[in-house]
Amino acid sequence: MTTEIRQLQPTEIWRNFANLNAVPRASKKEERVIAFMKAFGENLGLETIIDDVGNVIIKKPATQGMEDRVTVVMQSHLDMVHQKNNDTVFDFDTQGIEMYVDGDWVRAKGTTLGADNGLGVATIMAILESTDIQHSAIEALFTIDEETGMTGAMGLKGGLLEGGILLNLDTEEDDEIGVGCAGGVDVTAFRSYNEEETPEFKIGYTIEVKGLQGGHSGMQIHEGLGNANKIMNRLLFDGFENFGLRISEIDGGGLRNAIPRESKAVVAIDAIHEDAFLLEMALVLNTIKKELKTTEPDLDIVVSKCESPKKIMDLGVQEGVTRALYATQNGVYRMSADIPDLVETSNNLARVLIKEGNIKIACLTRSSVESAKLDLANTLRATFELTGCEVEFSGDYPGWTPNMDSAILKVMAKLYEDLNGEKPHVAACHAGLECGILGTNYPEMDMISFGPNIKGAHSPDECAQISSVQKYWKFVLEILKHIPKK
């Protein structure tokens, strides 16, 4: 079936894609594809560099008459996600991807296709080997490990590239021009506390929040979905204010990049207040359900009796932590002033773990504006420090601030409309892309992201649209002809 793939139009892309897909290239196992790309550049007689972390850079001079144009960095990542169906027999370490044509789509037999980001890589290979395509000086940047840490982009040093424009070929909708993305930082608060013996007059209850939808803490943070940690804290705060509820333990949420779906707490209340407590909890949970009835129709809050816990939190610490959690920003903090409907800055209160004398609260703060990201992170830090927590920032990666005055954006928007008779969708996303990281060492570089239609990336359902690749290739060629002068 590889022969059939190689004959698709444009053959320049599909032939190189087939060659690339014959090489195993899992994230963090890119040795063979690095060697493959090095040999490709050297066989063309082009300057080929492998940097300290394994990124491959291939440089090609401008074609005749284009020497006065801005040097262009064309960038894609070499690694791909390796996933297969349970009933598919396939060894990613030794086998090349088995592809086939299904109408207007190219698919793989029970595995990921590798169109993400293999079609971008193949496009750049086609430009590098061409003898009849007009272009300014090209610096091809093939990064590693995009899918599991972006360590290639993070490790790229300043000074290796001279280009003034970067074309990132890692967008998966052919009518979209990407101009920005969010950066992020993990904010973690922690402290220890003294446990107290639970008084004999108190009885035990568990409170469970479940049935929430959850979702991506970047792409879905604006949808008004319920956060189990915030809902749980609201219940606990109310129970303490009215009935002296004491917390034994809380276990809520999970991954930082997921809106928490569930939380469970073990608490103790005065036996004399049991009936009033249950009535109050019923009123509060009905209120919360009404508030979230549209976005969270399956929300369930269960309050049930259990054995009285042996230990409870120190009262002063409990008061401070529940107040801090109430004050913790969750959800959208600021919308973009430049791009309609784009979330600029947000926070996800992702994890609350209180147990056996230790507290851990984990957040993921995102923003497409670095200063805003730090500002919100410091807001969280101050909130938690007021209650005696130590706060740690980690996993910091930069955002890509949208530049609506970008020179290459104006060129590309006009070319797209001329070619297709409609305006492109100029967009930014509230998640991470390599552009933001690359911009750290190349802050003056004008960056754009685009690509052909790819569906089901990261799954065995991944497929690439043949007609869209044709549309995209024409766009690439026109862009290279119209690169601005230096």
From TrEMBL:
Gene3D superfamilies, alphabetized: Zn peptidases
Cofactor: Zn(2+); Co(2+)
Annotated InterPro entries: Peptidase_M20, Peptidase_M20_dimer, Peptidase_M20C
Peptidase M20 dimerisation domain span: 207-292
Pfam families registered for this protein in UniProt: M20_dimer (PF07687), Peptidase_M20 (PF01546)
Reactions listed under catalytic activity: Hydrolysis of dipeptides, preferentially hydrophobic dipeptides including prolyl amino acids
GO terms, molecular function: metal ion binding; metallodipeptidase activity
Signal sequence segment: none
GO BP: proteolysis
Cellular-component GO terms for this entry: cytosol
Alphabetized UniProt keyword annotations: Cobalt, Hydrolase, Metal-binding, Metalloprotease, Protease, Zinc
Ranges in coiled-coil conformation: none
Keyword field contains Plastid: no
The protein's enzyme class: hydrolase
EC numbers for this chain: 3.4.13.18
Family membership noted in the UniProt record: Belongs to the peptidase M20C family.
Protein name (database record): Cytosol non-specific dipeptidase
Organism per entry: Seonamhaeicola marinus
